Amino acid sequence: MKIDFVLPWVDGSDPIWLQEKNRYDKNNKKDYNNSNMRYRDWGTLRYVLRSIEHNCPWYNKIYLITEGHYPNWLDIEHERIVLITHDELYFDKSHLPVFSSPSIEMNLANIDDLSDNFVYLNDDTLILKPIGKDRFFKNNLPVDFFSHGWIARNKIFEELRGMNSWAHSIKNNIDLINRKFPNVKLTKKQLYHSSYGIKTKISNFLFNNIYKQILWLEHYHQPIPYLKKTLKEVHAEFSDEMMQCSKNRFRANNDLNQYLYRYWQLASGQFYPSKHFDHKYYKIETKEDMQKCLSEIDNYTFVCPNDSISEDISEEDYLYIETELIKKLKELLPNKASFEK
Question: C-alpha 310: how far from its chain's center?
Fold first, then answer.
């Protein structure tokens, strides 16, 4: 079984790219999801790619999706590296240029030669322990879990708690999935697997016997296994809505995102049930957040230190956060990958 890895990356410090972004960005200057800090690069890509090669040595190829630039240390002629530019990726080139990952994710079905089973991840998600293929795929199905939510993200929820563009995109995904799968039928194993906690089992029971339609699904920020055929099926079913999202140069409330593919797999029963607790997402806003991340990082297989730092942080603190993270990653992944110059 061949398994590719796919991830998007942007060099937010590229002056040409930055000039282009600022030229199109008229209304998003104060919106975190579209501000320049949203595209900052801590230099984690090198270690993300190392972590794939060292801890998933069975991988077939790594597809790196970029605007066209790439880091100077990466050998793009290497047999296991495939650079995909936006111009090659997009179904409709008139949507370019784009500065939004949801837009990029709407075009994944257009990747030629992608393996039938693949793993999608972000450029800040690290694989820090050796794992086998069966962590991602069993019986030729993605390893995943169905954990239904308790509260719908409706207008009342939005009034009380608020919703950003990302939360809207998740809700939009669910609306489409409910339209396609009005009566989700899953096996008892998929609903009540032994790896699920009691809260998940109760919530899934309510879903299966009362709600019938999906309100919300738990997920985690880690590499996600997908079937190539899922990309094709989803694109064929929702092409109009997906192309509307693809047009959005910046994040917007009518976005969709890559979890649309995951929800399709879950709702259609195309997954092998198993819930793991080997991952950790850290929202890094302060020095203390990074210190906590670095003190715990050895405990997990998948770790995502997500840059959520506001622009008013001191230069000293920001430099500390960036420097300490790279120092730790050098310690954990000291050896070059075969595709590093």
Answer: 22
Alpha helices in the chain (DSSP H): 15-24, 45-55, 86-89, 101-105, 155-161, 165-180, 188-191, 198-206, 228-246, 259-267, 287-296, 315-332
Question: Are the CB atoms for 278 and 300 separated by under 8 Å?
Answer: yes
3-state DSSP call for residue 196? coil
**Tens-place pLDDT, residues 152-201:** 776 666 666 677 888 889 999 999 999 999 999 999 999 999 999 999 99
Q: Per-residue confidence at 208, pLDDT binned at 50, 70, 90?
A: very high
CB atoms < 10 A from the CB of 310, how many? 10
Residue 130: band (very low, low, confident or very high) from pLDDT cuts 50, 70, 90:
very high
Contact 128, 51 (CB under 8 A): yes
Answer yes or no: are the C-beta atoms of 232 and 147 closer than 8 Å.
Answer: no
The token pair at 175 is 């609306």
Per domain, the residue ranges of the chain are 3-332
Is the pLDDT score of 296 beyond 70?
Answer: yes
Residue type, 266: L
Kindly give, in sequence order, each residue whose CB lies less than 8 Å from that of residue 27, ignoring residues fewer than 6 positions away. none
Q: How far apart are CA 35 and CA 331, in angstroms?
A: 31
Q: Global pTM?
A: 0.94
Question: At the topology level of CATH, where does 3-332 sit?
Answer: Spore Coat Polysaccharide Biosynthesis Protein SpsA; Chain A (3.90.550)
State the helix-helix crossing angle for 45-55 and 315-332, rounded to 10 degrees: 20
